């Protein structure tokens, strides 16, 4: 096998040595006929096509849906490394929730000089409409998607936090369903921890955070921007699995200080909204005046605690990549603990010394917009042309507050299946955590995203990336 190992590979130490997590799998793999594996890869893509596992790229001028590329070689983690991830994510999710409750009320973290005031002032992700308000059960980030990367045998780093409208859980579940269809005996032999209980756990969380007076049998809906949204497949998938109505803003109305949903039997009260639209579109009376995606008056109903919105409006301030750089301090301030999972070293262009270093080393760094997502609005210095670097330099000089920079890390690789055999590709891991009443449930495995292009570090599906199933081995 000519497997070109670069830096740290999670499956192979060398061409003749397999890591413990993969020994049983690789032994099985070597016994499989190539033609059969190739057929399984095609079958997997056919499953995705029949199920409609798609995403929409906003820059796609043809306005068509794209299949999520899927690789049949699983990513395998052992229980010991997974337990550390669970502890680290639990710590992080709790600290972020404490931070959100504080930043919209007493702002103790600013008064104690831990977080600079200017990171909050004039920050579009900080919602003044939430000042002085405490959500039901003091829960802001009901659903969190924490992105992790691995760099060596023991260290996972948090690359970024996604707590506004995190996506990808449906692909995690579909990946597992597909692997069970293709390789049922293999999964049972490996004793892989289940991750398809995600929607059951999410359903329980949404019921727990319902308004106090409606907890017995709350009416939950999933609010989508509609069929043209890039993640509409996921919206429909989760609504179906949760057993709740999938609604658009036009299906909802505020009547007598309560939120109601249009049905064939008339208007029905709604108690919990699992929203998949951004803050500014939620309510044209409170945010973007010309938004047709939200519901006029929704925020007044919310502030009167007659409806719960998950995730809470204003949660997106924690997605800010400048705030991300302070998460270790946030953990220490609220929990009095050292971070279990490390941050990637981050240079803040808003600081004069950091800005000078970044501008002097653009060709060696990864530059990101503080509110960027999906792999857009970033520069990977070592792979960029002189012209691209020059353009980005001008952007940073114009608005340094809008950018952070990080070193180009050597992301771990995992094998993917090709017609020529196994070949390594860079991966990251989006882990999903659910929170209510200070109790965190981290879903086993999460979603492994893989950069299918050779040497690429960008794993986002909108940038040519794919996914693979993530196996956590029980002890």
Please, could you describe this protein's structure?
This protein has 475 residues and is α+β, with helices and mostly antiparallel strands. The protein is 30% helix and 24% strand. It contains 13 helices and 24 strands. Strands 5, 6, 7, 15, 20, 21, 22, 23 and 24 form a nine-stranded mixed sheet that branches. A four-stranded parallel sheet has the order 9-8-13-14, with helices on one face. A hairpin with a 2-residue loop joins strand 21 (421-436) and strand 22. The protein is globular.
Number of helix segments? 13
Query: What class would the helix/strand composition place it in?
Result: alpha+beta
What kind of sheet is the major sheet?
A: 9 strands, mixed
Average of the residue pLDDT scores: 91
Percent of residues in β-strands:
15-25%
Poorly predicted parts: none
Task: List key phrases describing it.
single chain, 475 residues, alpha+beta, nine-stranded mixed β-sheet, four-stranded parallel β-sheet, 24 strands, globular
Short description:
This protein is α+β, with helices and mostly antiparallel strands and 475 residues long. It has 13 helices and 24 strands.
Question: What is this structure's SSE topology?
Answer:
Layout: E1 12-14, E2 17-18, H1 20-30, H2 34-51, E3 54-55, E4 66-67, E5 70-77, H3 79-103, H4 108-111, E6 143-150, E7 156-162, H5 169-182, H6 184-190, H7 198-208, E8 220-223, H8 232-242, E9 245-247, E10 252-255, E11 258-263, E12 266-269, E13 272-275, H9 298-303, E14 308-310, H10 321-324, H11 327-335, E15 342-343, E16 347-348, H12 352-360, E17 365-369, E18 378-380, H13 386-398, E19 403-407, E20 413-418, E21 421-436, E22 439-442, E23 447-451, E24 465-472
Parallel strand pairs: 5-24, 7-15, 8-9, 8-13, 13-14
Antiparallel strand pairs: 1-2, 3-4, 6-7, 6-21, 10-11, 11-12, 16-19, 17-18, 17-19, 20-21, 21-22, 21-23, 23-24
């Amino acid at each position: 096998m000519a497997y070109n190992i670069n830096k740290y590979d999670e499956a192979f130490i060398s061409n003749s040595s397999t890591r413990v997590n993969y020994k049983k799998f690789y032994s099985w793999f070597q016994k499989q006929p190539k033609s059969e594996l190739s057929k399984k890869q095609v079958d997997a893509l056919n499953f995705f096509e029949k199920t409609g596992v798609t995403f929409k790229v906003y820059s796609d001028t043809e306005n068509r849906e794209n299949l999520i590329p899927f690789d049949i070689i699983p990513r395998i983690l052992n229980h010991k490394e997974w337990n550390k991830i669970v502890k680290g994510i639990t710590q992080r999710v709790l600290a972020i929730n404490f931070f959100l409750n504080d930043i919209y009320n007493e702002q103790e973290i600013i008064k104690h000089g831990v977080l600079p005031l200017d990171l909050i002032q004039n920050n579009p992700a900080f919602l003044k409409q939430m000042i002085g308000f405490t959500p039901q059960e003091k829960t802001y980030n009901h659903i969190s998607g924490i992105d992790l990367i691995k760099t060596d045998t023991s260290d996972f780093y948090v690359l970024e936090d996604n707590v506004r409208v995190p996506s990808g859980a449906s692909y995690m579940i579909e990946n597992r369903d597909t692997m069970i269809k293709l390789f049922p005996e293999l999964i049972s032999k490996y004793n892989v921890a289940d991750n398809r209980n995600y929607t059951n756990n999410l359903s329980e969380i949404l019921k727990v955070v319902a308004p106090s007076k409606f907890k017995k049998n709350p009416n939950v809906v999933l609010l989508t921007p509609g069929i043209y949204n890039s993640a509409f497949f996921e919206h429909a998938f989760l609504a179906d699995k949760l057993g709740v109505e999938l609604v658009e803003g036009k299906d909802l109305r505020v009547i007598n200080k309560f939120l109601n949903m249009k049905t064939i039997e008339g208007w029905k009260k709604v108690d919990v909204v699992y929203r998949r639209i951004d803050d500014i579109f939620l309510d044209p009376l409170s945010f973007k005046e010309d938004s047709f995606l939200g519901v006029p008056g929704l925020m007044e109903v919310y502030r009167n605690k007659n409806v719960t919105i998950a995730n809470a409006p204003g949660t997106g301030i924690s997605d800010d990549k400048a705030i991300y750089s302070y998460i270790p301090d946030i953990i220490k301030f609220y929990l009095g603990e050292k971070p279990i999972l490390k941050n990637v070293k981050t240079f803040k262009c808003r600081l004069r010394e950091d800005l000078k270093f970044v501008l002097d080393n653009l060709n060696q760094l990864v530059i990101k917009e503080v509110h960027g997502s999906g792999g857009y609005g970033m520069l990977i210095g070592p792979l960029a042309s002189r012209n691209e670097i020059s353009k980005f330099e001008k952007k940073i000089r114009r608005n340094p507050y809008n950018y952070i920079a990080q070193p180009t890390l050597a992301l771990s690789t995992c094998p993917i299946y090709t017609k020529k055999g196994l070949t390594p590709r860079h991966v990251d891991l989006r882990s999903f955590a659910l929170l209510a009443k200070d109790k965190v449930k981290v879903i086993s495995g999460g979603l492994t995203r893989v950069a299918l292009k050779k040497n690429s570090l960008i794993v986002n599906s909108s940038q040519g990336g794919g996914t693979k199933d993530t196996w956590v081995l029980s002890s």
